[in-house]
Amino acid sequence: MTTENPARPAFDREALAAHALELHARNFNCAQCVACTLAPFVNADERDVFRAAEGLGGGMGGFTETCGAIAGAAMVAGLARSNGYDDPTSKQDTYALTKQMVDRFRETVGSTLCADIKATDGATPLRPCDECIVLGLDLAIDMLESIEGR
């Protein structure tokens, strides 16, 4: 039996997905949608997270490289797992959590590259951004639950 961490609010996936998609409708990029939605769960300031994730949209600065939704999930992993500035020894654990999310994202979507996902070459898109945002959010929530023992 796991005990829920009383310091953190419970994950209402449906409400969180609705919030993330509302942010997307307000012109937040995919990384901002995932990271800002989960900022309260990792004791981060949503406005600081917004600014930090700004360059990750459009596949890293509009270059259609790594999908912003999974990049935002990776930000959440760092915010949740890092020992902080004065103790930079946790990166291997954060990398492992991020690798799990990236692998699952790639298995589900077929790629982590924004260009492939959006089919910038004219092919059929693999997924719309909204689906990638919800998937990135779900993977980040799964990761948070795993490290919190929920």
Largest sheet: none
Oligomer: single chain
Question: Would you tell me the structural class of the helices and strands?
Answer: mainly alpha
Q: Give the overall form.
A: globular
- Name the helicity range: 55-70%
Q: What is the string of SSEs from the N terminus onward?
A: HHHHHHHH
Number of helices: 8
**Low-confidence residue ranges:** 1-5
Radius of gyration: 15 Å
The chain-level mean pLDDT equals 93
- The proportion of residues in beta strands is under 5%
E-strand count: 0
N- and C-termini, Cα separation: 9 Å
Can you offer a commentary on this structure?
This protein is an all-alpha fold and 150 residues long. The protein is 61% helix and 0% strand. It has helices at residues 13-25, 30-38, 46-53, 57-60, 68-81, 91-109, 114-118, 129-148. The chain is globular, with a radius of gyration of 15 Å. The N and C termini lie close together (9 Å). The model is unreliable at 1-5 (pLDDT under 50).
